[in-house]
């Protein structure tokens, strides 16, 4: 039986290069889901590949970024496809000292949240989370990448309190879905691997600069992400 790999992605622009290069076909909407998550399926390197997107908001016409729809997309895809491995692929911000634009970051440590602050005993650790990853060096053989802590929050900007938490947790990549996908995978006992490509440097003080960086670098980072994903999928035995 071939290995089934589920790839969770938030934005259509991030996913389109990999969908095209793998030649995946779009699946019909699942009538049991009240809110459609676009899904694409195909075979590659002896493995069954399913990509599930967060979809677009009918109210606002934009990609449904963030943790809520990432968790819903992941759980419903787990129930429907029963994957052996879940990959969360997407873009991220990073400190300029840690990574350049379009660099690939993965995590050999548990992923965490940086904006879940609950100062109550027990709840504080639960809110931050520490969800395991299935990092294997052989998956990245021949691929230039940087292992580090990936940290998740639901805002693009970075107030001082978020910066403090990220630095306290030695975060390398800041993004908006990973911990939610990791938590859902962990709940179902499925191996999880994040792969992120840098769109912006988060140690820029002016918020608009981060937005401009993200928009200017999204295509470049998405293409690098696609190339890396194909090589990782090839390396997975």
Question: What keywords describe this structure?
Answer:
eleven-stranded mixed beta sheet; alpha/beta; single chain; 237 residues; Rossmann fold
SSE series: EHEEEHEEEHEEHEHEH
The CATH topology turns out to be: Rossmann fold
- Binned, the helix content reads 25-40%
Rg value:
17 Å
Overall structural domain count? 1
Dominant shape: globular
CATH class: Alpha Beta
CATH superfamily: Nucleoside phosphorylase domain
Q: Return residue spans where pLDDT drops below 50 for at least 5 consecutive residues.
A: none
Strand content: 15-25%
Give a quick account of the main beta sheet: strands, pairing sense, barrel closure: 11 strands, mixed
**Structural class, from secondary structure content?**
alpha/beta
Mean pLDDT: 94
Give the CATH architecture. 3-Layer(aba) Sandwich
Assembly annotation: single chain
The first-to-last residue Cα distance is 12 Å
The helix tally amounts to: 6
Q: Tally the beta strands.
A: 11
In short:
With 237 residues, this protein is an alpha/beta fold.
Explain what the structure shows:
Strands 1, 2, 3, 4, 5, 6, 7, 8, 9, 10 and 11 form an eleven-stranded mixed beta sheet that branches. Helix 1 (12-22) packs parallel to helix 6 (207-235) and helix 2 packs parallel to helix 5. The protein has helices at residues 12-22, 67-81, 123-128, 160-168, 178-187, 207-235; strands spanning 4-9, 25-26, 39-44, 47-53, 85-94, 104-106, 112-113, 146-147, 149-152, 171-175, 191-201. The chain has one domain: 3-Layer(aba) Sandwich (Rossmann fold). The mean pLDDT is 94. It has six helices and eleven strands. It starts with a strand and ends with a helix. It has 237 residues and is α/β, with parallel strands linked by helices.
């Amino acid at each position: 039986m071939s290995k089934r790999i589920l790839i969770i992605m938030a934005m259509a622009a991030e996913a389109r290069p990999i969908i095209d290069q793998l030649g995946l076909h779009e699946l019909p909407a699942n009538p049991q889901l009240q809110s459609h998550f676009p899904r694409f399926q195909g075979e590659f390197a002896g493995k069954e590949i399913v990509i599930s997107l967060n979809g677009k908001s009918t109210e606002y016409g934009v990609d449904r970024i963030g943790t809520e729809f990432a968790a819903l997309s992941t759980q419903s895809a787990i129930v429907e496809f029963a994957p052996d491995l879940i990959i969360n692929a997407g873009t991220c911000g990073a400190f300029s000292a840690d990574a350049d634009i379009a660099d690939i970051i993965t995590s050999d440590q548990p992923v965490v949240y940086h904006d879940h602050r609950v100062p109550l005993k027990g709840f504080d650790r639960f809110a931050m989370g520490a969800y395991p990853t299935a990092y294997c060096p052989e998956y990245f053989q021949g691929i230039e990448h940087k292992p580090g802590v990936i940290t998740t929050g639901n805002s693009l900007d970075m107030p001082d309190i978020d910066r403090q938490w990220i630095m306290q947790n030695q975060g390398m990549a800041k993004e908006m879905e990973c911990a939610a996908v990791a938590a859902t995978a962990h709940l179902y006992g499925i191996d999880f691997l994040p792969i992120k490509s840098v769109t912006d440097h988060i140690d820029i003080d002016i918020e608009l600069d981060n937005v401009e960086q993200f928009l200017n670098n999204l295509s470049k980072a998405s293409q690098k992400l696609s190339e890396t994903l194909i090589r990782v999928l090839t390396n997975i035995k």
